[in-house]
Amino acid sequence: MKTIRKLNKDDFEDILEISKSIWEGHDYVPEVFVEWIENPLSHVFGIEIDGKVVSIANLRIIDQGKTGWMEGLRVHVDYRGKGLANEITDYLVEQAKKLDLDRLRYTTASRNVESLSIAQRVGLVQLFRLGIFWNSDISEIDIEDDTEKVKLIDATSLHSLIDRVPIKENIIIQDWKAVDATLAGLHSLEEKNRFWISINDIVNLSIGGIRKEASGLYWSFTIYVKSWSDLKSHLNFHIQEAKKRDFDSIVCTYPIEFQERLQSYDWFNEQERNTEVIMLEKKL
After folding, report:
1. Is 191 helix (H, G, I), strand (E, B) or coil?
2. Which are the contacts of 226, defined by CB distance < 8 A and separation ≥ 6?
3. Which alpha helices (DSSP H) does the chain contain, by range?
């Protein structure tokens, strides 16, 4: 028998089983599943077949009740090709309407053809793209540039400058998550991240925090700049920050216009060439 229901902590073993085949066992969902369950703003649903959870997705309410953030869509490897991803996505859309949300949003990788197909089918449209890369041995990265002008700033002070930051659609993405660039949104980001800026004719911004995966911890950061020199300053700053914190690995999200120049470095992972984060939205 097949049912769709809200999940609970007792479903954790099934979630581990699903995640074993995701990103070669590096899936982040097991690290955040209990946090989702305990969060009153998260609505974690699963498809159960014959007593076993075989698909999962979370609908998290953000932006002061305006946005339904869709995340963690997974289907057990043995149950793929049966339409379960479409089924649970449709269910999340209906739940979002019942919750009277203004919109649905989520991010996905440009190479995730299945995810993009599901998004198109339910009416999500692309807002913009950012580049992204991983590196699991930052000792090999050496980018010489001035980092002294990169300074820590708190959410409240940043909000007074946000109109000068080169973000798109008034949305800030950090570690695959997105929030509106409001004071409340910045404060929500600040719970697990920190902000750094440098100022010239614009306000250049980078956001950094810890990413938990089954394989270990990453220093994850996003850079919002307009010039190559400012990108190098913030990139070098975060590489140094990661080393200070004893991280071996980083995830960097950055403006897509610098993709070709970043990919010219010899430390760039060829398997990640042209990988992008796509921001998607559906108005309700």
Report:
1. coil
2. 166, 202, 204, 255
3. 12-19, 29-38, 84-98, 113-121, 155-159, 183-190, 228-244, 259-262
Tens digit of each residue's pLDDT (9 = 90 or more) over 143-185: 777 788 999 999 999 999 999 999 999 999 999 999 999 999 9
CA distance 157 to 160: 6
| Closest alpha carbon to 185 in 47, 66, 25 | 66
**CA-closest candidate to residue 194, choices 155, 248, 160:** 155
Give residue 197's pLDDT.
98
Token pair of 9 as six digits: 């902590």
Cβ atoms of residues 207 and 221 within 8 Å: yes
Max Cα-Cα span within the chain: 61
The pTM (predicted TM-score) of the whole model is 0.92
Residues 206, 222: contact at Cβ < 8 Å? yes
Q: For the sheet containing 216-224, what is the strand order?
A: 2-6, 42-49, 52-62, 67-75, 103-109, 276-283, 125-135, 250-255, 216-224, 203-213, 193-199, 151-153
In the chain, what are the domains?
2-101 (3.40.630.30), 131-282 (3.40.630)
Which region holds residue 183: left if phi is over 0, alpha if psi is between -120 and 50, else beta? Answer: alpha
